[in-house]
Amino acid sequence: QLQLVQSGGGLVQPGGSLRLSCATSGFTLDHFNIAWFRQAPGKEREGVSCVNKGSTYIIYKDSVKGRFTISRDIAKNAVYLQMNSLKPEDTATYYCAADNTRSSECELSVRPYDYWGRGTQVTVSS
């Protein structure tokens, strides 16, 4: 069973940066489509960004374009979400998720993803 281990959350001031990490052992994450989701209290979970198998396709939610970057470190078997210019509305619990289907493109809906990290809290406040 694929276990996704997350780290990198915390408290940051508006305009600051954080880097979230999603990693595993025993599986090759480059063989999975990987997505980042977030959920604030009382709100629906929303897709933030995703990268497909082989990293030939990347998409972002419109509100984070130009501020967030998704990337892979193949040697470390990890996926990152670099978050810059953070805003209070970015405050949420962030989850990474993996999809091992053969689809050539990833998507930001919850449905395709089979495996989920436990989530990490990101709080943006002055």
Structural topology:
Layout: E1 5-7, E2 10-12, E3 18-23, E4 33-39, E5 46-51, E6 58-60, E7 68-73, E8 78-83, E9 92-99, E10 115-116, E11 120-124
Parallel strand pairs: 2-11
Antiparallel strand pairs: 1-3, 3-8, 4-5, 4-9, 5-6, 7-8, 9-10, 9-11
Textual characterization of the structure:
The structure is a single chain. The protein has 126 residues and is mainly β. It has no helices and eleven strands. It has strands at 5-7, 10-12, 18-23, 33-39, 46-51, 58-60, 68-73, 78-83, 92-99, 115-116, 120-124. The strands form two sheets. Strands 2, 4, 5, 6, 9, 10 and 11 form a seven-stranded mixed sheet that branches. A four-stranded antiparallel sheet has the order 1-3-8-7, with no helix packed on it. The chain starts with a strand and ends with a strand. The model has no long low-confidence stretch (mean pLDDT 96).
